Amino acid sequence: MQLINIIGIISVFVLLLLAIFLLTVKTHHKLSNRLFAVFLILTAVNFSGWFVPLFLPSSSNLFMFRSTVSFLEMPFFYFYVLSVCYEDFELKPKHLLHAIPFVFVNLMYLPRFYLADIAEKTEFSANYLYLIETYIRDVLGNVQWLLYIVLVLYTLNRFKKIYRENYAETSFQIHRWLLQITIIFIVAGTFATLKKYVVYTPFDWTFGWLQISVGFVALSVTCWFVLKALYSPELFRGVDSNLETVDNLIQQKELTESNSQKDVATNPEIKRLKKYMEREKPYLDSSLTLQKLAGQMEMSSRDLSILINHELGQHFFDFVNKYRVEEASKILENEEKSNLTILEILYEVGFNSKSSFNTAFKKHTSLTPTQYRKNHI
Fold first, then answer.
1. CATH 1.20.1070.10: which residues of the chain?
2. Contact 272, 254 (CB under 8 A)
3. Mean pLDDT of successive 10-residue segments in the chain (377 residues)?
4. Would you say the pTM of this structure is higher than 0.90?
């Protein structure tokens, strides 16, 4: 028990320290940081259950209230994911609905615990594992956890699709990072649930060691993804949540069979688009988005999205990076520019990172930039 107490105290200390940092550091991502800080604080309150019994009796109202705070953790993690994925996300009154399970559980404990006398509370605590309230709480907690995992996965899937169709950067660090966290949550949540039900089996003696294992893993994972968030500011690029996927745009426009089978080679809009790309070279702008290109061409972003993603059958980032790779290829073939480094070339043609440049270049030429230069000079 002393080891569990020590792990709990260290975990809470680290979580609160990082939460304070997130709340005080100067950044453009204030909402994301604040939501993540609240999530860390709620997690710290949850972890404090490993040592709170040293200071509070299990029959106190504060002890019971602390145990229900876990129903707010997943909602705030979900809000955090939304704020990271969508740059225009804002907290609204409707988000208070996510607190319903938390309120319900506390109301459920009202008659037989919060309003009971000391003797009744003591008896309630002694038989806690076998009460109907405990059964309802555990089932509701598992259902809530599963629901938010599904919501987070749906959000990440939609974010990735919108990003590919509207942005030219090929790096999906945000998506990969949040997906990693979610997968860890799935594994950790499953393990925590199994641990919870061990007390009802003949192997209840393993509960303490399972608790210690969960503590070590939770502390390690928390430090990993928090530090990664703090030192990787590029992870915080979001998309506009009002953007629609191409499938939805096509349904809204109700394209006819003849339109969807129109010959790409004779489509005047596609010809105009390609001519504009070759003449004006907008792809050299590293911050180019579908919306920005649509404005330059004086057409709606919806029509341009359908034109590229549906009629040309390419994601926006593939369409733009093909021109960037072609531009880079010309430079790599030019002996007069052989003194330019790969890094200088990738920035010149509109890329933001070496990894995204290498990925796109190899996708379109089957060679790395270095190999291509050797073969053509």
1. 2-236
2. no
3. 78 85 75 88 87 82 92 94 84 95 96 93 89 92 93 88 68 70 79 69 68 74 67 50 52 48 66 90 87 88 82 83 91 87 90 84 88 83
4. no
Domain with CATH 1.10.10.60 in the chain: 246-376
Q: What is the CATH number of domain 246-376?
A: 1.10.10.60
294 contacts 300 by C-beta, under 8 angstroms: yes
Q: How many CB atoms lie within 10 A of CB 330?
A: 12
User: How far is 238 from 87, CA to CA, in rounded Å?
Assistant: 5
- Cα 250 from chain centroid (whole Å): 27
**What is the homologous superfamily of the domain 2-236 according to CATH?**
Rhodopsin 7-helix transmembrane proteins (1.20.1070.10)
User: What's CA 318's distance to the chain center, in Å?
Assistant: 23
Q: Distance between CA atoms of 184 and 186, rounded to whole angstroms?
A: 5
3-state SS assignment for residue 167: strand
